[in-house]
Amino acid sequence: MTTNKTTKSKAGAKTAVKRTTRKSVKQENKHIGLVKNDSWLEPYEDAIRGRHEHALWKIAQLTRNGKKTLSDFASGHLYFGLHKLAKGWVFREWAPNATEIYLIGDFNNWQESPKYKCKRIEGTGNWELKLSEKAIKHGDLYKMKVKWNGGEGERIPAWCQRVVQDEQTKIFSAQVWNPEHPYVFKKKTFKPDISPLLIYECHIGMGQDAEKVGSYREFQENVLPRVKKDGYNAIQVMAIQEHPYYGSFGYHVSSFFAPSSRFGTPDELKEMIDTAHKMGIAVIIDVVHSHAVKNEVEGLGNLAGDPNQYFYPGERHEHPAWDSLCFDYGKDDVLHFLLSNCKYWLEEYHFDGFRFDGVTSMLYYSHGLGEAFTGYGDYFNGHEDDNAICYLTLANKLIHEVNPKAITIAEEVSGMPGLAARFEDGGYGFDYRMAMNIPDYWIKTIKEVRDEDVNVCSIFWEVKNRRPDEKTISYCESHDQALVGDKTIIFRLIDADMYWHFKKGDENEIVRRGIALHKMIRLVTLGAINGGYLNFMGNEFGHPEWIDFPREGNGWSYKYARRQWNLVDNKELCYHWLGDFDRRMLEVVKSQRNFQNTPVTEIWHNDGDQVLCFMRGDLVFVFNFSPTHSYTDYGFLVPTGSYEVVLNTDAKEFGGNGFANDTMTHMTNYDELYVKDRKEWLKLYLPARSAVVLRKL
Q1: Rounded Cα gap, residues 296 and 291, in angstroms
Q2: How far apart, in whole angstroms, are the C-alpha atoms of residue 324 and residue 88?
Q3: Contact 442, 521 (CB under 8 A)
Q4: Catalytic status, residue 411
Q5: How far is CA 64 from the centre of its chain?
């Protein structure tokens, strides 16, 4: 008996081996998740797998085959730069092309001296300087004096965490930052609310009424309460990383680890973020890893006599459209720099995630310039930067390793498949991608299509046009539309009449049309989201002015580099109607549990009538885009029951006409043809150019 059992056991073991082998073969033949979810990608599966395997190989290399974590690797900010030790100071810099490096500053009268001369760490491109406790102090200004074969120059350290500008000379210098009582975060843990994610995109400097550069403290005290009151649960903050030119909007970064000192101190930024967390507001940093400013004295352009230390050589060195430099994502030291930068903002400042700027520029050798992207082949034709794709994938892996609740958003216009898909499925791991088609669609429609020709089928298609396996951030207009050279939606609709007819009681037909469409455009965009929604600061109430930063052409004026909150606070003006509507609109959406995950179910569309109706959970969205036709007893087949009005764009409290009675409960009308479907007719009065949201009771 014993022998038989043993024999049987061995046979079973052999069978198991065979089965495992077959399973492995079968596994190999299975499609990767991205292709499984979209069969049209099957011809490109080899390329998708190749990119995925490249990322796996790079992760294995950087983590020494798992002996350490990606987070362990991305800790360069704890090693490089200037650090206070238990006794004394240490300074380190990566500069392989340098022959000598000195620290010069307030502490040595900006002169080279042996005491402040760095030593090269043998066998590396790294330099180190150890100093006594009293050699430098908090507040001291300093730079590196770097020498190389054939030249020398003053430079700001690449890893420095504090940079300030002299108000008179306009010269930037690094600054020793070691306050006696550093800020301690009160809110130790924070979990962003993503059901749905409602983002208020903002700029600290222009976040106040006064004609000046606003501060972290002013933003904390004056703007955060507005964000909270308006119902947004996240802010996306621009221009945090230090940039020499204020008018670049923060997109030409010089010091990647230094929060801009224009707005205040590092401690004040920390307090602002901490305060936001106490209010339940997540804070997302608009991070720029797609390119860097060309400046040499302030930036990384020529840190130590090698212009290619951080950047691609040759034709790929400069971005042809942005007058900036392109990172070499194929270098491990550059990966170390950028990944450490991600971890730094998460851990040092408690940011809750990142909006990655200019992802399209990173993905393609062409930077997406002149490309149409009309078919899947355009994403897999060999014109893609595999190094950049690998970096973005690693960045997402790292960010979610450091903070599993962190949010990552890709600003990407080409539609690259897999960008916001799971890494395990062959995706790049972003949580969301910007739905950049939507603001383009709205501006094109407003500019080119007559109101009577607006196609509701086209609208519905555009606001819900996305890949089913990728979540998006929908928005009506981008911050770029508020910059000089373009116009916001409200300004496209109303233009100069905003200056003359935006007082209550003095609205003309142009103003009334603009106010009505502004509300409808926002509502239909928000109503169709599958991830989150974004609004740029001030656009929620129809801010009338474009953004024009101080420059030579405007006499260095701050007149247009601000937000006129006084307009929305003035109850005699029309602005507050739009602001009140935006607030109520968000309330309605948040009243439906996990609104972003509910199916977008089309009930009805009729292009001739210009009427659209769709349902999400218990909410029914109805739009009449016709500029002239109102409809009585317009019917829709909906689940049987009673419905109450929860939002009406035409309500008087939002600047509408108040034609409909929103207090009545709407009962569905019996139709024997649809009994089996448990549906009946919901009949509504639909005034021209209006929308209504109802909730099933």
Answers
A1: 14
A2: 38
A3: yes
A4: yes
A5: 32
Burial 491-501 (b: 16+ CB within 10 A, else e): bbbbeebbeeb
Beta bridge pairs of residue 536:
201
Name the band, by pLDDT with cuts 50, 70 and 90, for residue 8.
very low
C-alpha distances (whole Å) from 691 to each of 21, 465, 634, 646 are 60, 21, 13, 11
Q: Are 358 and 368 in contact (CB under 8 A)?
A: no
Identify the pLDDT of residue 398: 98
SS3 136: coil
Q: Residue 159: which residues within 8 A CB-CB, separation 6 or more?
A: 76, 77, 80, 81, 92, 93, 94, 257, 337
Query: Residue 153 is inside which H or E element, if any?
Result: strand 151-155
Contact 47, 32 (CB under 8 A): no
* Separation CA 114–CA 458 (nearest Å): 71
Cα–Cα distance for residue pair 90/546, rounded to 1 Å: 46
Helix (H) or strand (E) holding 667, with range, is: strand 665-667
Q: Give me the residue label for tokens 């088609």.
A: 437
Q: What burial letters (b/e) apply to 321-337, b meaning 16+ CB within 10 Å?
A: ebebbbbbbebeebbbb
pLDDT of amino acid 486: 78
What is the tens place of the pLDDT at every residue in 654-663? 999 999 999 9
318 and 325 in contact (C-beta within 8 Å)? yes
Give the CA angle between residues 672, 677, 678 to the nearest 5°. Answer: 75
What is d(CA 203, CA 220) in angstroms, rounded to the nearest whole number?
12
Q: Based on C-alpha coordinates, what's the Rg of the chain?
A: 29
C-alpha 692/C-alpha 318 separation (Å) is 50
Q: Is the pTM of this model over 0.90?
A: yes
Q: What is the residue type of 544?
A: P
pLDDT at 357 over 70: yes
Q: Which domains does the chain have, with CATH numbers?
A: 26-68+327-434 (3.20.20.80), 76-175 (2.60.40.10), 599-696 (2.60.40.1180)
- The answer to whether residues 176 and 324 touch, using CB atoms and an 8 Å cutoff, is no
Average pLDDT over residues 519-523: 98
- DSSP label at residue 574: T
* Long-range contacts of the stretch 439-446 (C-beta < 8 A, 24+): 439/475, 439/476, 439/477, 439/478, 439/481, 442/476, 442/477, 442/489, 442/521, 442/525, 443/477, 443/481, 443/486, 443/489, 443/492, 446/489, 446/492, 446/493, 446/517
Helix (H) or strand (E) holding 636: strand 631-639
**In 3D, which of 159, 168, 174 has the Cα closest to residue 103?**
174
Mean of pLDDT values over 628-641: 97
Q: Write out the two tokens for 131.
A: 């100093």
Place of tokens 């010089």: 254
The CA-based dihedral angle spanning residues 248, 541, 613, 596, taken in that order and rounded to the nearest 10 degrees: 60
Long-range contacts of 592-596 (CB under 8 A, 24+ apart): 592/616, 592/617, 592/618, 592/619, 593/195, 593/617, 594/195, 594/196, 595/195, 595/196, 595/529, 595/619, 596/194, 596/195, 596/196, 596/197, 596/471, 596/529, 596/530, 596/531, 596/532
Q: Which residue is catalytic, options 357, 425, 470, 680?
A: 357
Q: Please give the Cα distance from 616 to 152 (Å, whole number).
A: 64
Other Cβ atoms within 10 Å of 131 Cβ, number: 17
Q: Strand 172-175 vs strand 163-165: parallel, antiparallel, or unpaired?
A: antiparallel
Closest to 160 in 3D by CA, of 245, 239, 255: 255
Q: Which of 242, 271, 328, 411 is catalytic?
A: 411
Mean local confidence (pLDDT), 347-364: 98
**Residue type for position 428:** Y
CA distances from 396 to 50, 96, 136, 584, 653 (A): 18, 28, 38, 34, 44
Residues 6+ apart with CB under 8 A from 21: none
Q: Distance between CA atoms of 534 and 532, rounded to whole angstroms?
A: 7
